């Protein structure tokens, strides 16, 4: 039996080395079009409308993948799917209050009211 193995290996017919496990591509292709287009990276980029209902936020929440929804919309979507509505990342039902978004919306409202007050001085 030993001679069969040595003959096979010397003839160049040894079995190939096991291939490395295949990895799933985690970064989107260059040039845009990936899920990162919907991620919020700075205060200036915070959205003003819910991606699900397309209305102004009511009780905004943020997912661990940094997407913003109305609390009601997020919970209703969670009943259908445990994944993020935008990027399909598993949320595990974790929706945190979006305090920075609420603060920005409050600032925007106060700025709008200040602008309205200025128009009344005519």
TrEMBL record:
Residues 1-17 have a biased composition (Low complexity). InterPro entries: CWC24-like (IPR039971), Znf_RING (IPR001841), Znf_RING/FYVE/PHD (IPR013083), Znf_RING_CS (IPR017907). Residues 1-40 are annotated as: Disordered. GO terms for cellular component: U2-type spliceosomal complex. GO terms for molecular function: zinc ion binding. It comes from the Eukaryota. Keywords: Metal-binding, Zinc, Zinc-finger. SMART domains: RING. One of its GO terms (biological process) is snoRNA splicing. Residues 50-88 form the RING-type domain. Coiled coil: none annotated. This is RING-type domain-containing protein. It comes from Mythimna separata (Oriental armyworm).
